[in-house]
Specification:
Helix content is 73%, strand content 3%. By secondary structure, the protein is mainly α. A hairpin with a 6-residue loop joins strand 3 and strand 4.
Amino acid sequence: MLIVAIVLSLGLGLAARGDMLNLARIRLRWVAAIFVALVIRFATEAAIGAGVGLVNDLRLPLYATAYVLLLAALWVNRAQPGLSLAFVGILANTVAILLNGGYMPIWQPSLVAAGFSPADVSPVGFHVLVTSTEFETAFLSQAVVLGDLIPIPVPFVTNVISLGDLFLSAGVAFFLFATVVRAPADLFEDEAASVRRRLAEVAVGGRDRGVRTETGLRSGLLEASGLSRPLLLGGAGAGLAGPAALPSAPGIAQPVVPAIPALLERARHHPYVRLALNPSFSALWAGQLVSLLGDRIHQIALAFLVLGATNSAIALGAVFVAATLPNLLFGPIAGTLVDRWDEREVLIVSDLLRATIVILIPIAAIIQIWLVYPLVFLMTTVSIFFRPARISVLPRIVERDDLIVANSAMWIGESFADIGGYALAGLFVAFLGASLPVAFWFDGVSYVASAVLIATIVVRPRSAPVDDGEPQVRSIVGEMRDGWRFLRHETVLLGNTFQGVAGQAMIGVLLALMPIFARDAIEGTTLEPEKVLAFLESGIGLGNLIGGFAVGLIGARIRLGRMVILGYALTGALVAVFGLTGDLGLALGLIFGVGAGNLVFVIPSQTLFQQRTPPELMGRVIGFRFALVFGGMTIAAAAAGVLGHLFGPGPVIVLFGLTTVAAGLAGLLVPTIRDA
């Protein structure tokens, strides 16, 4: 897996006209520690395989030494793109190996699914076999969920890998690709930044030891090391600030910066490339993607866990009520509270809390299925604090000119998670069979991985300090009142919010009844309901992706109000037709259209609120909109469970689709909304 990732990343880097020589120019810290760790790791495995008893007896301390050295080296180099992701991968594998006495656990069903047999696992090798009956009892005590569980039954790369292997491969691949495509000037700037840090440390150390700094030597060193002023005055070289401007000296080889075509130079400084090379943004983006993929797995598993235990549309609809009700209850105050806290800490704590909660869901289901609902409620409650914290922290880890592109990249990552995540989730959940708790445990691991990645980001401090104390608590009510007063008197935004209530109600019904629709309404297919549901969910994600790009291309040519009306009417009509079909191919086409149409009203609605709401009221106004819109979704999901039980999923989906069409077309009757 790692070799494939390395070859693929280098190939893509060369295809992007990168330079392999950049690998020699990169400056990593603790290279010796990495080399020693790799020697210990593979020499230990080779000696054990050769039957050296002493090494086998010392396998745990030897493997522990190797992995701890790797973790330390990756941590000190975490500023390099991708290496924070590799750190998470090594950490996951380290925990699994240490808790199993120097062995990597491998799950027997995954081994068989990849085309191997239990006889292929040597009793003195690197792996220890875990059977299905042992899996659940060993989960907490031996962290078996971090072991080799993911089968890859693909010719030439047949294997069983761990979640940590995925993170490690992705991190190393991203590091190599980013290094190859980076311009030499970027690498020299990294080296210059390292010099500046070391000079600052020397200067501070001198001060601490009583060395006099009044001479100006310290400030002069720092100013020169900053390369922020000309190194040469007069002549052709004046004003050059990079190392390439240094004059030649006898016997000293000067760095050569190869000429880069203007087109490639612009491409490498494109905002998306700059974001990819920003370690804080890439860590935040990767953390979001990892947790979203885990979410998709547990969402599919949760639907069929409840449906399998109750066989009730009402019980399934209640899950969506529990998952959306916190938005109604706490949405207006979550953003205000997050503004008073450290956003990075909110993100980390939220991920760790969600990891704990999602791990408890299958345990609660074994005790009593109804215990699942308060846990789902708590999951969403924590999530509504995570979302505004992520939005708030983004402007402090990227440059202002890259903010729009950064928001777009976060949305694209979520769309990719919808497209690939649901498909993989359906296949994975179907593969798990009776071992459904594994899906929730995987999501728990993904949240921990996200928390570790977010812990590596560097956030610029706020421009103003945050006050503490009781007056803040009292001011929340007044701030909320100001937001509601503005929304109530803003005709366009209030009308758009009411349209959003109808549209989100339709989405709530669709999500609540989709598992039953996939099981009962789709005919003529041999696929399991889990796979049908995964394909339908992926169709929505693909439609979101295409619809978002389409709106970006043509959105400026159409009035926002009319685009919103078109989006609601189009999406509602497609949902109504979807509720009438029983053919999988037609259903996939329609649900793709629903995903695209969803962005036709979501993006212009967000733009309207951004354009018409004063910045100082933005959080509160958006909070009230979310409360009303998701409140409609909560009520609709509850009603869908009852109505779906009485009339079946199809007629209920049709009814709410037509209601959304009516809400969209009603905007034509109000000139201020229509012409907004």
